[in-house]
Amino acid sequence: MRSEFPLIFERSRSGSTGYRLPTTQVPQRAADELLPTELRRSEDPALPELSELDVVRHFSGLSRRNFCVDLGFYPLGSCTMKYNPKINEDVAALPGFRDLHPLVPESAAQGTLKLMHTLLEDLCELTGMKWGTLQPFAGAQGEYAGMKLFKAYFKDRGEPQRTKVLVPDSSHGTNPASAHIAGFDVVEIPSDERGLVTAAALEEHLDENLAGIMLTNPNTLGLFEREISEIAAKVHEAGGLLYYDGANLNAIMGQVRPGDMGFDVVHLNLHKTLSTPHGGGGPGAGPVLVGERVREYLPVPNIKQDGDQYRFDSDLQKSMGRVAGFYGNVGVLVRAAAYIKAMGGDGLSLASKLAVLNANYCRVNLNQVLDIPYGGLCKHEFVLSAKSLKEKYGISATDIAKGMIDRGIHPPTVYFPLIVPEALMVEPTETENLDTMNEFIEVIKDLAAQAANDPNALHTAPVNTPIGRLDEVLAARKPRVAWKEEE
User: For 349-364, b where at least 16 C-beta lie within 10 A, e where not — what string?
Assistant: First the structure.
């Protein structure tokens, strides 16, 4: 059965050709010798056959169905889906950056090396750290690198028994995952009735086995951890380290720095805070910044400045090793550098203030529409709950999210943090104007009213999209991720 939008295999027509490879200059005998028999195909792969025009139309058609921040409001909590200024794209496309081959000698890459060195200086100023690495290709890889820095630190100190990492119950899922795959034992710390971590909750874990704690501040509930100074002092006194998940840095730029809070290792999501492409926009970058305690364990190569020259330095005797090859994801680094220079310190500070203002404007206007489990002033994001709608009318957070799709708004993050039932985590960012937020507020009010008056309509949403409500349980249990020709 053909779908409304045919798969590329369904568009295939035998004999259609969109590209021809040049004739190989490698003699057949040499190819036979180079390729072991067990690695050779016995028959041609089942690839679709299309003309170039058909391929272009197919993927152009798919792209029009993809929602992005350039098309509409994208309040995806904890993901900071802010607008990416197009000047960043222009700068990243300059031939000197775009066409640089990773194998050129350092003398021929001075412009890129200088940009990377300057970017590291700026990121250290922004976070209050001493130095860092730009190598990680994503925030999650940055987290893993940060945990390996913990490992290298304790190994060098002769404290291999320090394997316990504390993680709040409101944390991002990548935190316990990164700690676990780096070889640590994860211990969950409960939030209090305010949604915060208390220094008292750590007391029983402050022993010789403590490696450290991973925190996001503000946390995933959008709340600033008020006891962070006391937490940092206690963890350090017990011999541990503090790790800062930089996912929510967009709330505090120019206001307070992780280094000043006492953190030893920081990872940043350039695709969140510093306005580089996110999600479908391409691969990201997750720089890791460190304090003095951990500096000598940074990955190699390090970027150094000698006079007016820049070079890679691999002479770090206690380095944790290498994270990525060559220069890292240079295109994303260039975009972040362009954003920082365009905004300046005052601009970055204003961006955070506006992000906090927008979030609180939405929160106050939705306070009587959906439940807000943790009240009071929030930072860049806040968490709503559809718990009351579920109990009264059988309308879940998923139903509200699907209804938003019909109204041209990307849903917020749902069912996270896990400590909030029927959670909807909203982050408007600083780049949205008052009209957009008012429209969003009215949509939520309308959906809440619909939950009371016509709940069945929400159960079937979305209906204004090419594909309607999917069976998410079936998709999770029996995913079909590869095309297979029907017999």
Answer: eebbebbbebbbebbe
